[in-house]
Amino acid sequence: xxxxxxxxxxxxxxxxxxxxxxxxxxxxxxxxxxxxxxxxxxxxxxxxxxxxxxxxxxxxxxxxxxxxxxxxxxxxxxxxxxxxxxxxxxxxxxxxxxxxxxxxxxxxxxxxxxxxxxxxxxxxxxxxxxxxxxxxxxxxxxxxxxxxxxxxxxxxxxxxxxxxxxxxxxxxxxxxxxxxxxxxxxxxxxxxxxxxxxxxxxxxxxxxxxxxxxxxxxxxxxxxxxxxxxxxxxxxxxxxxxxxxxxxxxxxxxxxxxxxxxxxxxxxxxxxxxxxxxxxxxxxxxxxxxxxxxxxxxxx
Length: 300
What we know:
Structural class: alpha/beta
Radius of gyration: 22 Å
Strand order of the largest sheet: 5-1-6-8-9-10-11-12-13-14-17-16-15
Largest sheet: 13 strands, mixed
Strand content: 25-35%
Order of helices and strands: EEHHEEEEEEEEEEEEEHHEEH
C-alpha cells in the first residue's frame, strides 16, 4: 500500500517541509512521520499538524492536497518515488540526487534547482528558475532530468552544468542564462535572450527564434545526438513528432561574449532562407563597419 499524506487545509503562511521526501518518510511509522519537524512561517511545528497520514510503503510516497504554499517538497531526495497529486510550491525537488518526483499539477519557482540526479516530472507548468542556480553557487543543475508538460518561466536552466531540461510548451526569457553545459529542449519555443552568456551546452527549439546578435550562424544539419534525446523525450510522454525527429536544424554558435562553444538549434521548417539572410546581413554589416573604421583612421 502507498504511504499517503493528505493536507488538511492550505497553510496560512508558507510551510517549509524538506522532510517530505521518501528518504525521511518511507518505512517510518505513522507516529514517526507525524512528529517530523516543519516550519510554518517562523514557527517550528510538526507534520501531523498539517497532514493526515495513512498507508505504508518502502519507497512509494503520495502527497495530496493544495501544496502551493508548501516549499521544498522532495528536496535533496536520493531515491524512491514521490508523487504530488496537485500543485506544489517553490523549490520542489531542489538538490535532488536520485529517485523520481512526479507533480501532477503545476510547480512553483526554483523547481529542481541545483539537481544532481534523478528525475523531476511536472505535468503542468513550472515557474521561474527551473533547474536554476542559487545565489553564491558556481553552477545550477548538475545532473538528472526535468520534464515539464506545460510552460516554464524565465531563466530556465540558468547556470546549467549537466543534465536535461525538456519543456513541452514555451520557455520564458533568458533560458540557459550563463549555462556551462547540458541540454535544454523547448518544444514550444523560446523567449528573448536565450543562451545569454552561455559557455557550452545546447539549447533546442522547434519554433522560430531570433538568437542574440552575439550568436553566429554556422550551418544547417541533422544532429545525430538530438535524435537520441528526442526519442527519450517521446518515451517519457512528450509529443515529439516524426518531423522533429528527422528534421534539419539551423545551428547558431555563441555566446560570442564568452567562449562561443555553446549552440542554439532551431528546427529548419522554412527557416533556412531566414538563417542564410541573417548570416549574410551580419557579414555585410561587419564588413561595412570595418570599412567605415578604416575610412575614419587618419593617414600618416
